[in-house]
Design brief:
The chain contains eleven helices and eleven strands. The chain is an alpha/beta fold. The chain folds into two domains: about 230 residues, no CATH class; about 60 residues. A hairpin with a 3-residue loop joins strand 4 and strand 5. It is globular and about 60 Å long. The termini are far apart.
């Protein structure tokens, strides 16, 4: 059985980001914005192999587990790329509110589906997903909500069975992919799980787990059934009755504790499991970003 996997890229890179959307001005329409970005991309030179470019924890686990199996990467800045392709190091995401978000440079809401169509004009892009799976028997795809939305029209053009790993099941069902969902659920992060991590990495962690099961059983149906059994019998994760706090209270705690941690994700885990503070990840990162910006402004005064 020939297996091909697709997964989303990660914001964290192993090389200095020579290309960044942060230098772009603000545009009134997506077409003009995409033309500007693609001009920069198409004039760039490669920096390294794609699978060695991304430094996300979930991404690295998946690459290591796949070993020699085929992998394509869904990049918000370059389009669809092969894991062994030579690419530049860049900063571009479709996740709103983040540094490096392409949506920060548009005077309207970002249409991520249209953005994906523009990215197919990148010199690094392999085109559409369905064009790259003809020689494979099994198609596995791990996606966060932003990337699932972005490539959803591409997925509808696939004419063979494919399977999606995602923590955004309601979104996937709403987009028409209920029959394609893998049976992983929240108990994967319970005490029986061995690949626990952040919600952001859930799709890639479950993708990694399934590859390990395929290697063990060497049979798709048996591996799939083992997931169903475990998700029904494993112990659910403990729910933490953390205390909700105002933005001002969280900012005060960030100020007190941020120097102890090098990564915002580690600081968030400290808030949740040590300080017992409830804060949704997107909200926390937004507050942390505001704190860092204010801190830098104060240094200049």
């Amino acid at each position: 059985m020939k297996i091909v996997s697709f997964t989303h890229c990660s914001a964290s890179k192993n090389f200095e980001k020579k290309l960044s959307v942060s230098g772009l001005r603000i545009f009134d329409d997506l077409s003009s914005l995409s033309n500007e970005w693609l001009t920069i991309v198409n004039q760039s030179s490669p920096k390294g192999i794609a699978k060695g470019m991304y430094n996300g924890g979930g991404f690295k686990k998946l690459v290591k587990t796949l070993d020699s199996k085929s992998l394509f990467i869904i990049s918000a800045g370059l389009g669809l790329i092969g894991s062994n392709d030579n690419i530049p190091s860049y900063e571009c995401t479709v996740t709103s509110g983040k540094d490096g978000s392409i949506g920060n440079h548009l005077n309207r809401n970002l249409d991520v589906k249209q953005w994906w169509e523009f990215l197919k004009k990148s010199k690094y892009s392999r085109g559409s997903i369905f064009e790259n799976i003809k020689n494979y028997d099994l198609v596995l795809i791990s996606l966060t909500s932003d990337y699932l939305t972005m490539i959803s029209e591409d997925l509808k053009n696939i004419d063979k069975n494919f399977y999606i790993f995602t923590g955004s099941k309601e979104l996937a069902i709403g987009l028409g992919f209920e029959s394609n969902l893998m049976p992983y659920n929240e108990v994967f992060d319970g005490p029986n799980g061995t690949l626990r991590g952040t919600n952001r990495d859930f799709a890639q962690r479950t993708h990694t787990d399934f590859i390990k099961r395929l290697n063990k059983y060497n049979n798709f149906d048996e591996a799939y059934e083992s997931v169903e059994f475990d998700m029904q019998t494993w112990i659910p994760p403990t729910k933490h009755n953390n205390v909700k706090k105002s933005d001002e209270e969280i900012l005060s705690l960030i100020k007190t504790n941020e120097a102890k941690f090098n990564k915002v994700t580690d600081l968030l885990r400290f808030f949740r499991f040590e300080l017992k503070v409830a804060c949704e990840e997107k909200r926390f990162k937004s507050l942390y970003k505001n704190f860092k910006e204010n801190k830098e402004c104060q240094k200049l005064l």
